[in-house]
Design goal:
Elements lengths: L1 H22 L8 E17 L15 E17 L2 E12 L9 E10 L4 E8 L21 E10 L2 E9 L21 E10 L5 E14 L7 E14 L4 E12 L9 E13 L2 E10 L54 E13 L2 E11 L10 E15 L2 E12 L1 H7 L6 E11 L2 E5 L2
Antiparallel strand pairs: 1-2, 1-18, 1-19, 2-3, 3-4, 4-5, 5-6, 6-7, 7-8, 8-9, 9-10, 10-11, 11-12, 12-13, 13-14, 14-15, 15-16, 16-17, 17-18
Length: 441
């Protein structure tokens, strides 16, 4: 079945790319534009420390990983008055990997636009809203995020209003019900409303977001049903010259897949100051609520954790990498036993552009849990992120980074890794994005 599905995916990609190529040969009275783009990233990482401990205490593994990843995207974007269509084929692979099954359509959508600002868009697309904390492509992760949705909206006169609707299903279940498991999305169905307003003559923007997500619960054989959870909140940004102030607040309610009540929240504030074009400073604080009780079970022992209520906030479908440290040590991998103590992230950084095209960044993070822990301190550790990027040409760039984390015993216990040691991570990325533009006469 997987082999057949792979052929189907490849066939769809070829067909969509062929449509874009045929457009170039069309003789239409309406003016049109076609962009053909190639995006390739080669990304190498060296990780040392921070990996989970083996469950068997007698097993010793090397706490180190070296690998090189490659991502290639081929895109066609067709635009004509009132209509736009886009297809993005994506292939992922780790160098040396056998039997890669990562060729897929990252995006494939059609959008209709009206003169009065109304639009309708349908297909697979990357969603990005506000600062991407809740909904974003998470493009640092090589696979990135995209959603199969219908999006309806209006944009004009400082107002933006979007409604997003999604319903996911497994191909093998078309004749046997609606149970959804191990699909391309973590949710079965989703409805979202987003509204944004830019205040006239004032560099102030405000957004409100409401999301209702249906998660598959039960099993295919016993009590298959949907549990609903809600997220609502807002985002503010004030951007006068040389200064930016951003803030957000979100709350989650409803039930998870195991019908356990959810009661979580998060808040953030961030200030950016740019006294000159070639340097600037940033400071901020994130608070994500945590569970009242965090179960720490020593490997090799038997424990049965149980949640009475979920109080650990989940940033779900956002671009996590840009918020909680470059090492992605939080909210990319779970804490032990499914519990989360939440997170406090206080950060301070600066950027400097000594040469044209060259940008240097340095950021310090103080990490702590948001819940008091029995016999453990709240401090998780200290992280330093160093990054450099250089635009060699308009479509060619090189970036590199090094991160260092000094973890504590709390980190060690909650992540079941060597958190109390010095964790180091280095990476190097090479990106090329040439673009060809064709248009009708």
């Amino acid at each position: 079945m997987r082999h057949g599905t792979q052929h189907f995916k490849v066939g769809c990609i070829i067909a969509l790319l062929s449509i874009g190529t045929n457009v170039l040969a069309q003789q239409d009275s309406s003016a049109y534009q076609v962009n053909i783009g190639l995006h390739h990233m080669t990304h190498g990482e060296v990780r040392n420390g921070g990996l989970p401990k083996p469950q068997d205490p007698s097993v010793t593994v090397e706490d180190r990983a070296n690998f090189i990843l490659g991502r290639t995207r081929l895109s066609i974007d067709y635009q004509r008055k009132g209509i736009e269509a886009k297809a993005v084929a994506q292939n992922l692979a780790i160098w040396g990997m056998r039997g890669s099954n990562s060729l897929d359509l990252h995006e494939a959508w059609v959008k209709l636009n009206s003169r009065n600002g109304l639009f309708a868009q349908i297909g697979r697309m990357a969603l990005a809203y506000d600062d991407e904390r809740i909904l974003g492509p998470n493009d640092w992760a090589m696979a990135a995020l995209s959603h199969d949705v219908l999006r309806l909206g209006y944009e004009g006169r400082g107002h933006k209003a979007h409604a997003v609707l999604a319903y996911n299903q497994n191909a093998e279940n078309m004749d046997t019900g609606t149970f959804y498991e191990d699909g391309s999305q973590p949710y079965k169905t989703m409805q979202m409303i987003w509204y944004h307003y830019d205040v006239p003559k004032v560099p102030l923007g405000a957004s409100l977001l409401f999301m209702n997500t249906g998660m598959q619960a039960g099993t295919k054989e016993k009590d298959p049903h949907t549990e609903w959870q809600q997220l609502f909140g807002g985002y503010l940004s004030f951007r006068p010259k040389h200064f930016t102030l951003e803030g957000s607040y979100y709350k989650q309610t409803g039930k998870n897949e195991n019908a356990i009540d959810i009661d979580t929240w998060m808040a953030s504030i961030k200030a950016t100051v740019s006294p000159a074009d070639n340097y600037g400073f940033v400071a901020g604080f994130d608070f994500l609520s945590g569970d009242d009780y965090v179960c720490v079970v020593t490997p090799g022992t038997i424990g049965l954790p149980f949640h009475e209520k979920i109080k650990g906030f989940s940033p779900i479908y956002g671009s996590h990498h840009q918020f909680y440290g470059v090492m992605d040590y939080f909210y990319q991998s779970a804490y032990i036993q499914g519990f989360t103590p939440g997170l406090q992230n206080a950060f301070l950084g600066m950027n400097y552009k000594p040469l044209k095209g060259l940008t240097l960044n340095a950021t310090y993070h103080y990490m702590a849990v948001a819940t008091s822990l029995e016999k453990l301190d709240m401090t998780l550790g200290h992280v330093i992120d160093l990054e450099a990027s250089y635009n060699i040409t308009k479509d060619l760039s090189l970036s590199a980074g090094f991160s260092f984390m000094k973890g504590t015993e709390t980190m060690n216990e909650l992540k079941q890794g060597n958190g109390d040691s010095n964790v180091r991570w280095g990476w190097l990325s090479f990106v090329v994005s040439p673009l060809s533009l064709y248009s009708s006469k």
